[in-house]
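Lay summary. Proteins are chains of building blocks that fold into shapes, and those shapes determine what they do. In this project we predict the shape from the chain. Here is one chain we studied, written as its sequence of building blocks.
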Amino acid sequence: MRKPSKARRDSGDEDESSHAHHSWRQSLGAIGPGLISGACDDDPSGIATYAQAGSRFGLSLLWSALFTFPIIAAIQEICDRTALATGSGIGELALKRFHRAGRWMVGAILLVLFIANTLNIAADLVAIGSGMNLQRAGPTWIWASLSGVGISMLIVRGSFDRIQQIFKVLAGTLIVYIVVLISVTHDWSTILHNAVIPHLELNKSYISLLVALLGTTISP
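And here is the predicted shape, written in a compact code that computers can read:
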């Protein structure tokens, strides 16, 4: 049997290397939308709410992640699958599905969600401005306004691919959470206990923060 020539072997190795490199780039590109969707919930208002919960009640609210994670995962899954299958969003599908009375109800719900999302975006912009103000970079209102204008221009005039690349890079900075988790010393048995076993306090401050955590994590 004749052995393959050296040129043919080199060509085969190059094809395999090119295929592996192409597959790696495809895999990296595929995680972009999912990574951004998961990271977008870690907004400034959410960070502020969780920081307040941790500073006031320590680890006693850690168990809420057991309930919020499966709910938010289910919501993301439903929205993604319906959008991929139909090419329409949840609101548009609801308007098509229901009759006139149902459409009025769906429209009212969407109006409430629009108001809630507007307030949520405003809180995020103010949080960005407050963060810059803490760094002595200027007044809160200036940075909040600049952030709002900059993001709006990026969405209106920028391409989807460019926005995805920018948000993907920004989402990568969340690895700092892992670094902090490793570097900060804590009793891991206490962390696991509070993460698995619910702890409730029947007082106004605790209940208010619990509702705030659920609201900022599972935002409309």
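What the prediction tells us: The chain is about 80% helix and 0% strand.
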